[in-house]
Amino acid sequence: MKKGHVVLIFLTSAFLCILLGIYIGRNTVTLIPTVFSSNSKPAATGVNPENRGKININTATVSQLQLLPEIGEVLAQSIIEYREENGPFNTIDDLLKVNGIGTYRLNLIRDRICISD
Questions:
Q1: Global confidence as pTM
Q2: Cα–Cα distances in angstroms (integers) from residue 28 to residues 22, 24, 25, 33, 43, in the given order
Q3: Which of 52, 72, 80, 82 has its CA 20 to 30 A from that of 100?
Q4: What sections of 1-91 are H helices per DSSP?
């Protein structure tokens, strides 16, 4: 094998590794951080254990809301603006009142959100 072929094979391999890294980086699922570890107990009384690790849509920031699937910066900001103008969400289904949230999107995030601690 000629030296030129070895260099070409090396460069091709490096290029494919870079493409694989980019692909994996873009398709990695972002896990929602959990509030409690599996061995810890809630810090305050009145905390619903069913809400552990869920994002509270009544207190979440833009960056926290963006951890949810199909929620980008603009939609996260719309959720916060709606909340500020209309008060806290009383039910998860109240999110349907936010422009840009439909049944499909709500069903994607329903199990990852809550309205109280």
A1: 0.58
A2: 10, 6, 6, 15, 31
A3: 52
A4: 3-26, 62-65, 73-86
Predicted local confidence at residue 48, as pLDDT: 64
Beta carbons within 10 angstroms of residue 82's beta carbon: 19
**CATH number corresponding to 49-114:** 1.10.150.320
Tokens coding 23: 């692909």
40 phi/psi in degrees, rounded to 5? -100, 165
- pLDDT at res. 62: 96
The pLDDT value given to residue 40: 45
CA dihedral 44, 49, 51, 56 (to 10 degrees): -10
Kindly list the domain boundaries of the chain, sorted by start residue: 1-30, 49-114
Strand intervals (E) in 34-114: 55-56, 113-114
Cβ-based neighbours of 63, under 8 Å, separated by 6 or more:
76
Average pLDDT for runs of 10 along the chain of length 117: 76 74 60 46 54 90 95 96 97 96 96 90
